[in-house]
Design goal:
- There is one protein chain.
- This protein has helices at residues 3-19, 23-32, 41-60, 63-86, 90-113.
- The protein is mainly alpha-helical and 140 residues long.
- It has a single domain, classed as Monooxygenase.
- The chain starts with a helix and ends in a 27-residue tail after the last helix.
Length: 140
């Protein structure tokens, strides 16, 4: 096996294992029906991170980014929802979630609305690096 695919597979496995670290907290919340001694911010921050990378992967049409971050976003969204279900302070949890996710949604909406057009004849091209860019210029 070539080194690049082997490294990609190892990174994919480590990333998915990292997303699974919240499962013990999820199991504890479900068993005790309480969020006592469980931090909310790591779930929310990781969820926002996954959703951001998922959106980026969709814009770039990168199946690896989409697959990995879809799994992470699903697991962390589940943790956020279970935390919300058992939290006695639902309003505070919702406000924190909205405060973090609203700019993410606005940025994704902006990127979708104002992205440069793509040539349908080149399905793998990068949206943000047009193939006809002037020499010496880099839009990113």
């Amino acid at each position: 096996m070539a080194p690049a695919p082997l490294l990609a597979a190892a990174c994919l496995a480590c990333t998915l294992a990292m997303f699974g670290t919240g499962l013990s907290d999820l199991r504890q919340m479900l068993a005790t029906q309480s969020v006592e001694n469980i931090q909310f911010l790591p779930f929310l921050a990781t969820d926002a991170n996954n959703l951001g990378w998922l959106g980026y992967g969709c814009l770039k049409r990168d199946p690896t980014l989409v697959a990995v971050n879809a799994v992470g976003a699903a697991l962390n969204t589940l943790c956020v929802l279970v935390y919300l279900r058992y939290s006695p302070h639902k309003r505070r949890v919702l406000l924190r979630s909205l405060a973090l996710l609203a700019p993410l949604a606005a940025g994704y909406g902006y990127a979708c609305r104002y992205r440069p057009p793509m040539d349908p004849a080149q399905p793998g091209q990068d949206r943000y690096r047009p193939s006809q860019a002037a020499p010496g210029t880099d839009p990113l």
